[in-house]
Each structure stands twice: as C-alpha cells, then as structure tokens.
Amino acid sequence: MGILKTAKFDVGAGPLPGGPAATSPVCPTGGAGLGIPKAIPKENQLAAATFLKFLTSPENTVTFAGATGYMPIRKSADVSALVAKTPQSKVAIDQLTVTRTQDRARVFFPGADQEMAKSCANILTQQADVHSEMTALKATLTGIYDQDVKPNL
C-alpha cells in the first residue's frame, strides 16, 4: 500500500504469467500464519480461538487486507469496497483461484527466505545469470538443510 501512496506515477498491476490452474498454478502463496499453542491453559486457548475468530471474520479480513496489502483470507469476504478503493488489488484477488503453496524451504529452513530474496534481487536488479544464481541458491539451501534441519529430524 505504501507504493501507491508514494509513487509519483500511476501504478498498474498485472497477473503473473503461467499455465492453466489445473496443471501449473502460477501464484505462490505465503505469509504468516495464526495458531494456538497446545501447551497453554485451556482458558487461554479459548480466548485465543475467540480472538482468531474475530480477526479472521470476513469483515476484518477485508479491513486487514486494505490496511496491509495482504490478500483477504476468507472466500466469504466481500471485497467490493477494497477493490473500489484499490482497483489494483483485483488482479491479485482474481489470481487467488490459481494459487499454489509456497516453497516450504522458505518457512522451514532458517534464513532461506532471505537467501531466495537475495537471489531474485540479483537476477532482477543486477542482471545475474539465472542458471548460475539458481545453482548457487540450491547449494546454499542444501547447506542450510544439512547443517540446520537434517540434524533435528
């Protein structure tokens, strides 16, 4: 949302390219999740569940999306006011029908998200060779797995 406020030009949006949803979903998902720890007292679990119900209601998920740029997490959410205020969001909302789960390494390998972002930035802003960059990233992620993940399995 900050981009729309600070840009000195009209900001457009376009869908991610890719194949049909049935064979190759093109839009990765990701972000933070919400959960309730099993080990906390039952009354705290109930309070947490009540808060999560409030936070993820259709109305509040639209409010959160409008304030942050994240996508509404409920299919039942009425996004018409959000799209009216920020028409660019419709492109991303429409692509939710062709989403795929994010790469699990981003979440479960310590530091992997930053390594992936660095590789993408090198390709997009430094014109780094894609094959070389992805080969180096694979080696980095394999090292993270071998050192930080595998010993704990």
Radius of gyration: 19 Å
- SS element count, helices: 8
Q: How many beta-strand runs?
A: 2
Strand content: under 5%
General form = flat
Structural class: mainly alpha
Number of domains: 2
Report the major sheet. Answer: 2 strands, parallel
For this structure, the quaternary state is: single chain
Q: Strand order across the biggest sheet?
A: 1-2
Model regions low in confidence, pLDDT < 50 over at least 5 residues:
none
Binned, the helix content reads: 40-55%
Mean pLDDT: 88
Query: What sequence of helices (H) and strands (E) makes up the elements?
Result: HEHHHHEHHH
Distance between the termini: 40 Å
Topology, please?
Blueprint: H1 2-6, E1 27-28, H2 42-55, H3 58-68, H4 80-85, H5 89-95, E2 99-100, H6 104-108, H7 112-126, H8 130-149
Parallel strand pairs: 1-2
Helix pairs in contact: 7-8
Features:
153 residues, mainly alpha, 2 domains, 8 helices, 3% strand
Question: How would you describe what is shown here?
Answer:
With 153 residues, this protein is mainly alpha-helical. It has 2 domains: 9-102, no CATH class; 103-153. It is 54% helix and 3% strand. The protein has helices spanning 2-6, 42-55, 58-68, 80-85, 89-95, 104-108, 112-126, 130-149, and strands at residues 27-28, 99-100. Strands 1-2 form a two-stranded parallel sheet. Helix 7 packs antiparallel against helix 8. The protein is flat and about 45 Å long. The termini are far apart.
